[in-house]
Amino acid sequence: MFSKKHSIQLVFSIIIVLSLSITVYAEEDDSTSIWDKRLALYKKTEALTLVPWYYLAAVDQFERNIKKDVPDDTIVSIDIDPHIWYGAGNVTQSKHTASIALFDGKGRDGNGDGLADPNNPEDALYTMATFLMEQGPREEDINIALWHYYQRDLTVQTIKNTANVFKSFKTIELTDRDFPVATNYNYSYRSTWGDRRGFGGLRIHEGTDIFADYGVPVKSTTYGVVEMKGWNLYGGWRIGIRDIHNIYHYYAHMSGYEDGIEVGTIVKPGDRIGSVGSTGYGPPGTSGKFPPHLHYGMYKDNGYSEWSFDPYPYLRKWERMSKK
Fold first, then answer.
1. Where are the domains of the chain?
2. What is the pTM of this model?
3. Measuring CA to CA, which residue among 273, 157, 272, 267 is closest to residue 223?
């Protein structure tokens, strides 16, 4: 039998859930943006499970980025394998929570209707949150749970970085972009992705070269986290930034770095990260083997592998945005 204290706590919890549900169901109002709808659901689930909203948002963002043709108005993109959701051997795949529990499934009821429906955004997010809490409440424990779920170090690091970006800016609506070279200086570029390169063996050029004078500021094009910094045989002094869309932005041949830019630094569009140079094609410090320019590359990660794609169309768009 519940004590008076437990009864009061239960009533208080119900009031919180109902009030949060009212916020979530405001999604039916067409004037509410998709960003607000998602954020309301993340914060409701945080209140129920104590998993920080920015981690839930980062997992959902990662899932959205590895899928194809996800409608823009999809609230939650988390898609849990049926065998995990319903439990091994649950051939009926009944959505009733009692049936799922009988087969040790992970599916949970997040909206209080007695069903655990993988196609219901509240149920899907609540189920993921309970999975993330299985190792413990600390962020280190959540990272361990993420590895158990995805079993891929890069995926865990990407989600962690995205969570840190959302936490830092206190929002998920991060749509600004910038051109990687300061546009108030002289510069030139054309589409060079896929061109032949000979240094170190025959290979293709995985990026766009933006030619400018030594010292011209180099800027972050996106919101993200510095994942790599240092010397590379091909790229000289280079920086790699992983953004919130599972894209790795590669800046190479720089003459130096901006003070305070280190691995783990959170950046936003327009933040200065270094300056144009001509470093590379040799041991650390090699410079001058080609005209000064910034090599800018973009690499997409789909949760299994990573590949280069042509950044030129994006650079043209961001250049226009920057000049406006």
1. 4-169, 187-323
2. 0.86
3. 267
